[in-house]
Structure formats: C-alpha cells, structure tokens
Amino acid sequence: MKLPTIYNVHLVAIIATLGGALFGFDISSMSAIVVTEQYITYFNNPSNVIQGAIGSALAAGSVVGSAVAGPISDKIGRRDSIMFACIFWLIGTAVQVACQNYGQLIAGRVLNGFTVGITSSQVPVYLAEIAKAEKRGSLVIIQQLAIEFGILIMYFIGYACASIPGSASFRTAWGTQFIPCVFLIIGLPFLPRSPRWLAKVGREQEAIQTLANIQAGGNVDDPLVIAEWEEIVTVMRAERESGRGWRKFFKNGMWKRTMAGMSVQAWQQLSGANVVVYYLTYIAQMAGLRGDVAMVTSGIQYAVFIIFTGVMWIFIDKTGRRTLLVLGALGMGFCHFVIGGVMGGYHEEVPGGVGDPPNANIVISVFPGAPANTVITFSYLLIVVYALTLAPVCWIYAAEVWSLGTRATGMSLAALSNWVFNFALGMFTPPAFVNITWKLFIIFGVLCVVMAVWFWLFYPETCGKTLEEIEVLFGHDAPKPWTTKKGESRLAAEIEAVKARKAADAPLSQTVTHEEKV
C-alpha cells in the first residue's frame, strides 16, 4: 500500500531537518560531558591532541560523508540519500554507547560524522529544490534551527546525566542520540521527492505533478508551475550541452560558483564561532565560573542561539544575503578582538590546569569582576551575531549558488569544505587554548575582517531569485557582485507570459515537447 505524501513545505522541512537535529546532537554530545569528573576519570584526562582527536572525529567522518553525498544523492535522490545516511548514525551511536576507550569513542563519532556529512549537504539541497524563490531562505533556515535545537537538547541531557555516577553518565547521554534518528527514519517515506531531481533523471510527468502539488495544490496548469517548469527545462538543456565530469565545476564561469559555494562554508568555520559553541564551557572556566554555574552559563548560549535564529527566520527573505554576511563578519570580528584583548590584559597563568580535578586544556584564569564578565558577555554577543548572520546564511547561500546538474555534488563540495576546516579547527583548538591562549581570539578577529572584504568583493546577491535565475549572476556577462540587489526576479514576468498563453489554451502538457524531455 502506497504511503500518503506530505506536500506542505514547512511540514516537509520540519521532518527533513531532523537530519540537522542529528548534527546538533553530535555537536553538543561532548560539550557538557568533557568537563565532568566521570569523563575525565574514565578517559584518563584526555588533553591536547587526544581531546582534539575526539572532538574533531565528527568532522573527520563528515569529510568522507560529504565527499560521497553528491554521487549518492544524484543516483538515488535527495530523500533516499538521507535515509541511507541514517544507517551509519545508528551504528555509530551504538559504538559510542558501548565504547571502552577513547579509540572506540573516536570510531563511533567518525561513523556519526559520516551521517552528518551526507545530511548537512543534502537536506539544504532538498529544501532549496522544493521551495518557492521568495520563501527559500525561511525554509532552509529551519535546518539551522533544527541544528540549534539538537545542540540545546543534547547539552542539557548531558548536563542532567552528569549526576549519574560512573560511565553510565555519558553512556546514557550518548544513547539518547538514537531518538531523533528513529523519528527521521519514520518520517522520510512520507516526503515527496525533489521535483528537480525527478526532472534530472527523466521522470518528467512525476516531476510536473510533484511541482504542482507543492506549489499550486496539484494544479499542473497553474501559471507559476508552468513558468517554473519551463525554467527547469531550459536550464537542463543548457547543462546537457555543457558536458559531464568534474570539468563542469570549473568551465564556462562555473568556477565562480564553485568558489562561492566552497568558500562560504570555509569562512563559516574560520569565523571562530564554533570555537565558542563547542568550548564555551572552557571559556566559562577561564572566567572563573565553576560547577553548575559554569554548565548552566554555557547552556544558556544555546537557547540564545535558537532565539536569535528564530528572529532571523522572520526576516531572512526580507534582507539580502550579502548584507548579512558582511555585517555578521565585522560584528563577530569585533567580539573576538574584545574577548582576546580582555583575556590578554587581565589573566594569570595556571600551568597545572584550572578546575577540580584540573582540566589540562585550560591554563589561564581571567581576573574576576569586570574582565571575567566582559569575556562572558562578548562570548554571548558573538553567538547572537552568528545566529543572526553567518549561521543560517552560509548554508542558504551554499545551497543556492549551484546549477541543477551540479547542485547535489556541488553542495557536497561545499559541505566538504566546511568539514575539512571544522576538522582542522577541532584538532587545532584544544592545543591552541594551551599554547597561545588568548591570542587564538585575535587570530579569529583578523580572519573575520578578511572575510567581510571577501564577501563584499565576490558574492552576488541571491535573495528573492529563482535557482535558475541565479545562473545569470555567475555567467560571463554577470554584473559586479556589489551592484546586485535582492529580489528583481524575472519569474513574475514569466508568469504573466504564461497567463497570456493560457488565453490560447496552452496547458502544461503541451509545453513539454519531445525535444525538451531529458
């Protein structure tokens, strides 16, 4: 018996972005646990390279997952590639729950990372391909909200489990990672396939009907459906003529899109926000907070993250992508400079490690009072700026810039870029806290300033345009990025042209000629 299909795009997005919740769960599966006595004792106080390897194991697996996600998605579809990824999450979570040493813990996190590599690249692709142009940002941002809810929920699960004695503490916390994956597996069969993927693999009539079900309540002769289908067909024809293979990512101006999609994800990591997201418990202890106060203070940041990303959900399609990227980079750079400057000017060295038991990754203590309060305040402010700007926009922009023929693999390349830098920073950060301490934040501040200049010079505005229109922004005769503006979509004019044709009774079935079929 055929299962019913859900076509309400926001409900579809909520189910699909449970893949983002997996991402969030794995991010904070360590945050509340790495400072607990149970974890430090059981794993023999891992520090420096070992803790870096544990923390970055997720990213290592995600690099591999991202690398294979595109070909898998093009072969079996966006929806089914997400289902495929869930298998590795169940195995990885089981390995973590049963681990006897940090080697097995790393292996489990690598397997979970493989899942995250696929879902983090293909869920935005899926959402971008089913969304209307004017609502695409608000739909894709649900993925970011799902990540943040996953982070918040898992963090406080870990915090609650900290009161359980022995290794059952972290094993119980890690075991809860099964829950979102099971819900995702149950929900996926009820979701429609991407109409653009259906068109790509030659299933035109199914693609048309799916597009109509999503966009116009099933009416295949709706002007919006006809106009959007004709754009899809035109772009597919051009892409067939452009050839196959990896060269298509660099020829005929495509290198601009490849550069934009991959660099925006690299810059998201180089902004340094995830250093604060992953290791605010360390920063809180540097600022003199201990025990439950440090844990709750760190957890509040995740709630702040959700609140301000929720605010941006309302405005994301009313504000240009370029504007948010440039202002976000500058705002985060300012916060990094303040945190690093205060830490550098008002601290004392603690070579044995801060805390009880001492944490070998935290070797400075910021003076209490105004200096410590400033560090915590600007750490929160950095998260606020990140939640309003780079956190959602980098994923949206990376999903928008690719052509139909390159979108799945292109988004895999973008996610690969994200995870390579995530892995590098995951390995770099714990030793950096020990070896260069406060200077780490100055480095990220400088990178944020460079990033703002890069965004302004190289990224055209994509907000409010159809995925097919974005092709023009990266072509040979494209306008300079700093001259582009949000909106100004040609789809409205094409809809009017369709309405004029409909006066001559030209239904959609007549617009799909034999020559246009893929």
Key phrases:
MFS_sugar_transport-like; carbohydrate:proton symporter activity; disordered C terminus; mainly alpha; globular; Growth Hormone, Chain: A; transport; 518 residues; single chain
| Spatial sequence of strands, sheet with the most strands | 1-2
CATH class: Mainly Alpha
H/I helix tally: 23
Tell me about the largest β-sheet: 2 strands, antiparallel
Mean pLDDT: 84
CATH topology: Growth Hormone, Chain: A
Main structural class: mainly alpha
Shape, per Cα inertia axes: globular
Description:
It is globular, with a radius of gyration of 24 Å. It has a two-stranded antiparallel sheet with strand order 1-2. With 518 residues, the protein is mostly helical. The protein has helices spanning 9-16, 18-28, 37-42, 48-76, 78-98, 102-130, 136-161, 168-175, 178-187, 195-200, 204-216, 223-242, 254-270, 273-286, 291-315, 321-345, 370-388, 390-400, 407-435, 439-458, 470-473, 491-502, 508-511; strands spanning 347-349, 364-366. Helix 4 runs antiparallel to helix 5 (78-98), helix 4 runs parallel beside helix 6 and helix 7 runs antiparallel to helix 15. The protein has one domain: MFS general substrate transporter like domains (Growth Hormone, Chain: A), CATH 1.20.1250.20. Helix content is 71%, strand content 1%.
Topology (elements, then pairings):
Layout: H1 9-16, H2 18-28, H3 37-42, H4 48-76, H5 78-98, H6 102-130, H7 136-161, H8 168-175, H9 178-187, H10 195-200, H11 204-216, H12 223-242, H13 254-270, H14 273-286, H15 291-315, H16 321-345, E1 347-349, E2 364-366, H17 370-388, H18 390-400, H19 407-435, H20 439-458, H21 470-473, H22 491-502, H23 508-511
Antiparallel strand pairs: 1-2
